[in-house]
Amino acid sequence: MLQMLNKKKRRMSQMSKLQCLSAEINAKANAEIFPVLQAFSVPEDNGYYVYMVCCSDNTLYTGWTTNVRKRLDTHNAGKGAKYTKIRRPVRLVYVEELASKQDAMKREYAIKQYTRKEKEKLIWAKWKEK
Q: In terms of Cα–Cα distance, which of 77, 58, 62, 52 is closest to 19?
């Protein structure tokens, strides 16, 4: 029994090392995947926005807000969503203005249903517009 527990601990330890290595590789890839997006302009006026941030582990988080600057600061202070709290710092990679709160919430839901590849296409399409 003790031997079985030790094997399990070793396996979990190896998994943790693998996950750490994966996170490190992803963080480096993050800078390579979205290099130009580091200077994304943040809307200063209050409206209804859907945004995507790229987290430190290269995952994408989607949300909606009325003040993008304040929401970004909240995420980076660790007071935003539970998801981004442990994945700081986050960088803004996509923002879209909508007409109403309901439209923003619907768009957020739609984007959250996208695959990673579809989200990346959306991000790059936005950048090609500029």
A: 58
Strand order in the sheet with 48-54: 60-65, 48-54, 91-98
50 bridge partner residues: 64, 96
The Cα 54–Cα 30 span in angstroms is 8
Question: What is the residue whose two structure tokens read 């990346």?
Answer: 120
Digitized pLDDT (tens) for each residue of the chain, 130 residues in all: 555 545 555 554 444 444 443 444 444 444 555 544 444 667 777 889 999 999 999 999 999 999 999 999 999 999 989 999 999 999 999 999 999 999 999 999 999 999 999 999 999 888 777 6
What gap in Å lies between CA 89 and CA 86, rounded to an integer? 9
Q: Which residue has the tokens 């969503």?
A: 81
CA distance 91 to 130: 18
